[in-house]
Amino acid sequence: MVRAGILGATGYTALELIKILLRHPEVQITAVTSRQAGRPPIASVHPQLTRRLDLPLEDLDAQALAERCDVVFSCLPHSASASSVKAIADAGVRVIDLSADYRLRDTASYEQWYGDSHHDPDRVGKVPYGLPEYFAEEIRSADVVANPGCYPSSAILPLAPLLKMELIEPDDLIIDAKSGVSGAGRTPKLQTLYAECNESLSAYNIGRHRHTPEIDQVIEMISGQHVEVVFTPHLAPMDRGILTTSYARPRGHATETSILGALREFYMDKPFIRVVDHLPATKDVAMTNYCDMTVRSSRGRVVIVSCLDNLVKGASGAAVQNFNVMFGFPETTALI
Amino acid sequence: MVRAGILGATGYTALELIKILLRHPEVQITAVTSRQAGRPPIASVHPQLTRRLDLPLEDLDAQALAERCDVVFSCLPHSASASSVKAIADAGVRVIDLSADYRLRDTASYEQWYGDSHHDPDRVGKVPYGLPEYFAEEIRSADVVANPGCYPSSAILPLAPLLKMELIEPDDLIIDAKSGVSGAGRTPKLQTLYAECNESLSAYNIGRHRHTPEIDQVIEMISGQHVEVVFTPHLAPMDRGILTTSYARPRGHATETSILGALREFYMDKPFIRVVDHLPATKDVAMTNYCDMTVRSSRGRVVIVSCLDNLVKGASGAAVQNFNVMFGFPETTALI
Amino acid sequence: MVRAGILGATGYTALELIKILLRHPEVQITAVTSRQAGRPPIASVHPQLTRRLDLPLEDLDAQALAERCDVVFSCLPHSASASSVKAIADAGVRVIDLSADYRLRDTASYEQWYGDSHHDPDRVGKVPYGLPEYFAEEIRSADVVANPGCYPSSAILPLAPLLKMELIEPDDLIIDAKSGVSGAGRTPKLQTLYAECNESLSAYNIGRHRHTPEIDQVIEMISGQHVEVVFTPHLAPMDRGILTTSYARPRGHATETSILGALREFYMDKPFIRVVDHLPATKDVAMTNYCDMTVRSSRGRVVIVSCLDNLVKGASGAAVQNFNVMFGFPETTALI
Amino acid sequence: MVRAGILGATGYTALELIKILLRHPEVQITAVTSRQAGRPPIASVHPQLTRRLDLPLEDLDAQALAERCDVVFSCLPHSASASSVKAIADAGVRVIDLSADYRLRDTASYEQWYGDSHHDPDRVGKVPYGLPEYFAEEIRSADVVANPGCYPSSAILPLAPLLKMELIEPDDLIIDAKSGVSGAGRTPKLQTLYAECNESLSAYNIGRHRHTPEIDQVIEMISGQHVEVVFTPHLAPMDRGILTTSYARPRGHATETSILGALREFYMDKPFIRVVDHLPATKDVAMTNYCDMTVRSSRGRVVIVSCLDNLVKGASGAAVQNFNVMFGFPETTALI
Asked: Do residue A56 and residue A98 come from a single domain?
């Protein structure tokens, strides 16, 4: 059994992660941390875990965790995460970081977009990006893995191969993404109150969302082509799911049929990517680790629709997928 | 034109009130208050009011308001409300208090349920309860009116006449009420986050909800019969609406048909009460000042279903209805 | 009083229309039609109208309606609408057609997109497009008005003036629109069941939606520039509202600030258009006749966000706005 | 491997059942039936099953199924179900019937409530009721099991033990239940359209719901006490979940604490029953086979709150739990 610890266990990402790990036959959760005083049982903040996980929320003590865990998943917010990840990784424990701290590959870009100096600059750029569909080799032997952002996963998974296969042009990419509210976290804020979000849909952070440089960077890493995407995130009145509609120009003689066929073949062996003929809905992938995608052609544009569950393939499911790769288990264990 | 001021203008109740008053041909809103610094325009906290109400949020200065208003609506929280209401009413301006502060008719009961000593004890018990279907006479000439709670309105409107007409027994009343989330206010709290409330339904405050003594008291005032209701509120995943299912025992030879007929006749002249044959849904009354109700008989029980919009007939619509009565306008002005 | 009849009164558009007309001081609804047998009261299909409109649903008899109405609103589906509109207009009664039948200005285009020959070909191309912000002059004296589609209104209102003022390029327009489910009508279908739509978001009819040629045509009529928009509609889990995110290229030296300023000035006198600085949400315009819009610049693109309530400014509110123009009432009567 | 067939595979219950069985290490789904023409792949009606279950929807041929299945789950509607269940069970294959056909223990009651003569009268009353918490012994060896209704499970699980332990009185039971919309099935109907259900809550079938005699009967079987419950179902705007609030009178000296303690001890060994101190929400049990419950005391009443996922513990999860008992697998396999 692999002993797993979870940092920042009170949010939605951690809850989803715990539920997946509880189904994993080779994992035992041995520690969950939070700044809550008095070591309350985790079920007191996540009633869903009643009778399922009987652990107290404990303070984060990197040294103590290192002794009781073989792997640590960090669900801490960015900046806070890097400090703890560094301490734990330095103590020799493998870490999957669900925060944004290790995703951008240079500290300048990190500082520009996150407004903070990095707490573990030496690892920046050396940590693999945790998209096993592309980086399984590096992930397998990594001490730290940077788990992807939810929006980036939904956009990169369809766009990167189309660019790599030279089926779309790199210089005119528009990504219009719609996310459920759980993506905004569990800290009480006016904007995420039920009576604000329900029956409402809005765009936010246009041109300023931190996932923008992440999308650019990873698409370039995979496809070898420089891109500067126009990325518009939206908040939609649902718990879960991201639907991303991307607009590109076809390259050469690419048609709807040829692009769809090439994409299907490209992903044939990836268990969590489903290239479909119909227009997928977020409900098709809710509570699963799948990313569904398809392609349409309209008036000289390629319209690419992709969707995933922001808390599963967009966060915790991907984290377990990375874990499986790192520890030599079948990639789909606990995920199908 | 009647000049109106609104205290505590940043919440949902105030927003609804403003939208109704903007349709009122005899009202001009002259002041809106809030503790926000810097006198921001009200549209900056309520984007719905853009181009509709061009007023700054100002500090609450009772004396200044008294000079600029003929009527003041208080949407302040309980306890805070009574202090301001007292100052404004003492200055000779009529007040409709949407808080709970003047609903209970003795200070001891208030202190027991609200855990606070009352800031305006002299008015307690002398202020009419703002249910114009029953207390229009007192409301007409009142300086202060206690606007009813949302749950109490939904329960009292069907139950009080049935008790008064001796069609149901007073000693065995169960009230199972389901409310939309806007009733919980606009202050950010974990419990009212979208991702907590959506796809979830729960009971809360069983046996401890502050609307319990209010229901008891007003039913007794209207029907002359002592009751101690069992009241269970629930939170349902919707913005608006309360559906209240009440269970009583029929008295004498009352049947479903006779009760329904008596209720229909009782409310024939009340413009906002609709006694219907079908089972009403909260959507039937959403955004309106109606209270729909019907009756069924099952296995020796009378099952009474009533519904209203918690922000309209349950709060701001009722407030304007009271205003119309107080200022001699047709009761339905701006409300139908 | 203007006597109004409503054809096809059982759907959502008709219900919204009736609720608005009931608030109109100069209108009396005299007839509502539907194919329902037995002349049931309209409140039996729309419980919201209980005690508000006491009319039976009657068969559509154009001649009889012409005698009892000064204006007729058709909420019939396309194709069925033109037949009835023709009969009623030929009898000398003015008609506002909420269907798509008179929007496209040539029968060939109509036949191509709607797959039907037109039942009133002589009027095609002569009926004004019912967007009073642009065509008030023609609407004023028209016998028939073609009420705009919901998606087209949301896209045309921000894009047409930007093209007309030469602030964006005409040859590269992407319109990504998200609509609530009421837009799909009230006929029971698998795709619009609650348990299919809730917690789900999807694109549909990419490149094939019938609003595409309507958008092209009206933008061209207003701006004088030929466009072929890429239009992607989405279904979002909410009752009401359309949020449209459009992507264009700036023309000349246009900047975010200059475009926003020009747009604000352009619409200064239009009571239902609110050009705002913040990113608007559908909730800001729900149940109102407003269209809110703003502009952002990102990486060489102009991102334009606009929203409206699909049943009000997108259908029935616009119809009443047209009615007001046609009959000489203030444009905002019953709408603010 | 146990070979499983599923009758009536196009609805929500069947989809949930398939998703659970796909996680079951000892099951292989070998047949799925539906009246769809042309043997379409099941993924064409359930896109969630893409790449997960590659079977065509075939016509229901009892004899052919009997040869290819070791167990059959019937998700057919009542009446239709009994005909097929009879044929398959007579052919020697074990059946779990998720319809209501075998729940009531006499044909007269069945005919009264379901308005149909029974198609397999010889088995009526001999088939165990599939609540393994109580009837595991009979289920273990049964050829046919009657899977419980969703509302009955939510009500029986807390009430039956309290009656059996003589902690509440049997002659005054009120059950106020609120269900998500998936419980109403996947056949398109006006009442279950998104735009009808969303933002709406209503009671339905008061005193006439077919689950009423099922609740009476099973409580009596378990507790030995005759009951006639007052049962009011409600439709709430959410996909999943039932929250049931029951009202009873305490018996003898029973208190909140003693009742809660007794209930907790009673269910200590049942893996899917969680007796909790807090007030549970449907979200706590969504997508799980748990039933959460607690007890409060108020003004001489015992208020009992219980909840479960109507499609899991209320239908397909319970079916797999029954399957596990019947085939000798650990009761929790594929369910935790």
From this structure: yes
Q: How far is D86 from D127, CA to CA, in rounded Å? A: 12
Residues A110, A161 within the same domain = no
CATH number at residue D112: 3.40.50.720
Round to whole Å and give the CA distance between D192 and D184. Answer: 7
**B142-188 pLDDT, tens digit each:** 999 999 999 999 999 999 999 999 999 999 999 999 999 999 999 99
Chains contacting B (3+ CB pairs below 8 angstroms)? A, C, D
Task: Check if D2 contacts C (Cβ < 8 Å).
Answer: no
d(CA C88, CA C71): 9
- Are residues C52 and C160 both part of a single domain? no
What's the CATH code of the domain at A235?
3.30.360.10
User: Can you tell me the mean pLDDT for D127-155?
Assistant: 98
User: Torsions phi, psi of C200, nearest 5?
Assistant: -145, 145
* A238–chain C Cβ distance below 8 A for any pair: yes
Task: Find the domain containing D27 and state its range.
Answer: 2-127
Per-residue pLDDT, A296:
98
Strand order in the sheet with A301-308: A202-203, A230-235, A174-179, A242-248, A301-308, A291-298, A273-275
Name the active-site residue from A69, A75, A150, A197.
Answer: A150
A108 touches chain C (CB under 8 A): no
Contacts of C307 (CB under 8 A, 6+ apart): A201, A202, C154, C241, C242, C243, C244, C280, C281, C282, C284, C285, C291, C292, C293
Q: Which residues of D are marked as active site?
A: 150
Active site residue C307: no
Distances (CA, A) of B227 to A33, B68, B233: 50, 43, 18
Tell me if B320 is assigned to some domain. Answer: no
Decide which of A62, A96, A127 is a domain's last residue. A127
Give the ipTM of the model, two decimals please. Answer: 0.97
Q: Which residue of A has its CA nearest to C182?
A: A199
**B329 within some domain:** no
Q: Does D41 share its domain with D83?
A: yes
Q: Could you tell me if A50 lies within 8 Å of chain D, comparing CB atoms?
A: yes
CA distance D32 to B176: 42
Residue B208 to chain A, least CA–CA distance (Å): 21
Q: What is the pLDDT of residues B229-285, one digit of tens each?
A: 999 999 999 999 999 999 999 999 999 999 999 999 999 999 999 999 999 999 999
Q: Report the predicted TM-score, pTM, of the whole model to 2 decimal places.
A: 0.97
Identify all chain D residues contacting B304, using CB atoms and an 8 Å cutoff.
none
Bridge partners of B29, per DSSP, are B4
Residues in chain C closer than 8 A to A229 (CB atoms): 299
Residue of C nearest to B335 (CA): C23
* D182 in contact with chain C, both atoms CB, cutoff 8 A: yes
With respect to residue B28, please indicate whether it lies within any of the assigned structural domains: yes
Out of A12, A186, A195, whose CB is closest to B12? Answer: A195
Residues of B in contact with A34 (CB under 8 A): none
Please tell me whether residues C34 and C162 are part of one structural domain.
no
Contacts A174 to C, Cβ<8 Å: 174, 247, 301
* Minimum distance, in Å, between the CA of residue A47 and any CA atom of chain D: 6
Q: Is residue D271 within 8 Å of residue B191, measured between CB atoms? A: no
Do A209 and A256 lie in one domain? The reply is yes
B200 lies in a domain?
yes
**In chain A, what residues touch D271 (CB-CB under 8 Å)?**
51
How many distinct structural domains can be found in chain D? 2
Q: Which residues have a Cβ under 8 Å from the Cβ of A196 and sit 6 or more positions away?
A: A190, B194, C283
Chains in contact with C, counting 3 or more C-beta pairs less than 8 Å apart as contact:
A, B, D
Same domain, B115 and B172: no
* Same-domain status, A181 and A301: yes
Which residue, among A194, A200, A278, A303, would best test binding to C if mutated, counting the most C CBs under 10 Å from its CB? A200
Average of per-residue pLDDT across A52-78: 97
